[in-house]
Amino acid sequence: MSIQSRFHGVLTALITPFSNGKVDEKAFQSLVEWQVEQGIHGLVPCGTTGESPTLSHAEHMRVVELCIEGAGGKVPVMAGTGSNSTEEAIQLTQHAQKAGADAALVVAPYYNKPTQEGLFQHFKAVAESVDIPLFVYNIPGRSTVNITDETFERLASIPNILGIKDATGDLTRPLTLRARVGDRFIQLSGEDMTAIGFNAQGGKGLISVTSNLAPKHVVAVQEATERGDYAEALRLHQPLVPLHNALFCESSPGPVKYAAHLMRGSAPDVRLPLVATSPATQELVRNTLKELKLL
Fold this sequence. Notes:
By secondary structure, this protein is α/β, with parallel strands linked by helices. It has a single domain, classed as TIM Barrel. It contains 14 helices and ten strands. The protein has helices at 3-6, 25-37, 57-71, 86-99, 116-128, 140-143, 149-155, 173-181, 195-200, 215-226, 230-237, 241-246, 254-264, 279-291, and strands at residues 9-13, 18-19, 22-23, 42-44, 78-80, 103-107, 134-138, 161-166, 186-189, 205-208. α5 links the parallel β6 (103-107) and β7. The longest helix has 15 residues, at 57-71. The mean pLDDT is 96.
């Protein structure tokens, strides 16, 4: 199987369960193993949904290791290794390679607001520090910088930069980027709501928050798009729309962690500056899960 063919369909942006202020390793590995059993196509630990900004370096590395161990080589692991410090991103990416990750997901540096040249040099430095594939994570809503098609075209000249996670919500991006780099990049959506349209425009899959809770449902949508059966994909996707919305009615991953608490018993704890979800959000999440027969 080629490297390119390993990254498609649904990859779950995994939550990081906490208990008494520490990473709940048992709950995390249980989630990983359940995801594999449910037929997920890949796993992404230590991304935004995994609360990477509030994990210590030791915790971050341990979570990556636990995910790789739990996946057992059955599905690829794309470890989140990004940072607004290039040196820190290099260290985390090198650790991911050493631990056995299949790829790394590197977010656009947040807070610093680098220029397009700074973004190019950042990703170039991280890519050249390792041999594993890199996926560039473009999420201007959180990072305040938007990677342009011109910069992606430059990044395409770096052999191990294999693709992107696009969380812009802009469904023109798969087309405009393909016009520049063809099928050189594997384009993955970072927004559950755009899953069908993104693939119809040339995308290859989704890095999903909702699949923490309903992996079979989200996989079924993606597999329908891979068959070109968009009518069936829409039929399967429509019931998930209220859940997609509910999981982002407050700062993520608060709602999805509360949902996982209801479904799997893991603590709903998040770390400051995030706080527990409001009673109204909890009621919305609970009712939405019941409507989907997930509770």
